[in-house]
Amino acid sequence: MAGSALEMVLELKGLNKQYGPVDALKNISLAIQPGEVVALLGDNGAGKSTLIKVISGAEAFCSGSLSIMGKTVSAKGYCVQKARQLGIETVYQSGSLGEQQSVWRNLFLGRHLHNRFGFIDHKEERKQAKALLERLEFNGIGANVDTPAQLLSGGERQGLAIGRAMLFGAKLVILDEPTTALSLGEVDKVLKFIEKLKSQDSACLLITHNMNDAYRVADRFVVMDRGSIIAQYHKSDISQAGLQQALLDAVGGGQ
């Protein structure tokens, strides 16, 4: 990949993670540029979940290096809070929303805006929430900032979680199976939200089992198997059918 380390949102070099005698991640090297969508593919147990936990600060890596926007972080000092401070946001399948809370309260949950007197600025939060929903082209019940999260559709829930990452200027958004169990219309909404991320120059690491979704939005495909990256493909170099077969061959060849 072209460019220096300073131009990369995320760069991993020789990263390893062990759980006792088990090598969960082995010599992982990966770089992601601003505005790039990378699909992380592989069978169950390939190491995808462990990798995103390490990148998001939920798990410490054992050796190797991890850099964000050219800044190398320490394995000991790196955590979820630090990852967020550096611009890494993770959206899990559940969306991690407060069910009883309104849309605008969910957007600022744990990161409220304050006025000059130190009080939470509800008016400004609602204003920014409304502007964000318009930018994301929310419609229907999800377009109302006062709607409780429990009334949102699956696609709107994912969109709200992605929007929260956008609102706080995320450099890299990690999406963990965002389209699972959604209808085709809802899947389309989520993929459009991912395209919105890309348009504002945020990078995205997409974990999915759905090849159609991956091929529609991703610029590059990274294949994992048994804790290692075993193949990488640029979208311009491979068709969807070719990617499907390459994935089967790569993973199947290791059996």
UniProtKB/TrEMBL annotation:
Residues 10-251 form the ABC transporter domain. Keywords: ATP-binding, Nucleotide-binding. The keyword ATP-binding applies. PROSITE patterns: ABC_TRANSPORTER_2. InterPro entries: AAA+_ATPase, ABC_carbohydrate_import_ATPase, ABC_transporter-like_ATP-bd, P-loop_NTPase. GO terms for molecular function: ATP binding; ATP hydrolysis activity. This is ABC transporter related.
